[in-house]
């Protein structure tokens, strides 16, 4: 069921973020196990779903509208991994490197390809590049999730074993997903403040990831 009242959507949104936070904490506890790599990607997928819900109902939450509404992304993509990962990445990413040959790196934007460019500039001038970027990263993350769980046989007969895969960035990735959850909470709190609307508290979710965030991305 992808049609719900704003109140039900609010409870569902918070449950998704709560679950994402708990998965992140479990990944942190398992570090450096390869299972942690898989868990952080699963947490990202929950965040992606939460963002779909938030985008569909943020106006209703601010206006006090009680009219039921649909979250079309849930109907279309709830069981698909790549769209959920793309949404989470799009929400969290602020700057990306854009190679020469795209509209986003042209002189008309005021940026060059010598350094990272704001995502919103890329979205305006080279949206197809941004979609391709998110798709590529989503596939990489989804593959990383599978490699953390399974012994994988490649076409050439070689195979990978989860505990033998080098994962030097895993600790930072755990922190990043915790930060992604916190971003969702902060964005919601900011909108509530602007609308002067009281909303159910989210402190319990924030408390779950507090210790992970306190260590920093290099912790």
Written description of the protein model:
The chain is mainly alpha-helical and 219 residues long. The chain has eight helices and six strands; from the N terminus they run βααβααββααββαα. The chain has a two-stranded antiparallel ribbon with strand order 1-2. A two-stranded antiparallel sheet has the order 3-4. Strand 5 and strand 6 (159-160) form a beta hairpin. It is globular. It starts with a strand and ends in a 5-residue tail after the last helix.
Brief summary of the model shown:
The chain is mostly helical and 219 residues long.
List the defining traits of the structure above.
219 residues; mainly alpha; two-stranded antiparallel sheet
Unreliable parts: 105-111
Q: Which band does the percent of strand residues land in? A: 5-15%
Q: Quick one: overall form?
A: globular
* Strand order in space, largest sheet: 1-2
Mean pLDDT: 86
The helix/strand class is: mainly alpha
Terminus-to-terminus distance: 40 Å
- Find the count of extended strands (DSSP E, 2+ residues): 6
**Radius of gyration, whole Å:** 19 Å
* Order of helical and strand elements: EHHEHHEEHHEEHH
Question: How much helix, percentage-wise, in residues?
Answer: 55-70%
How does the major sheet shape up?
2 strands, antiparallel
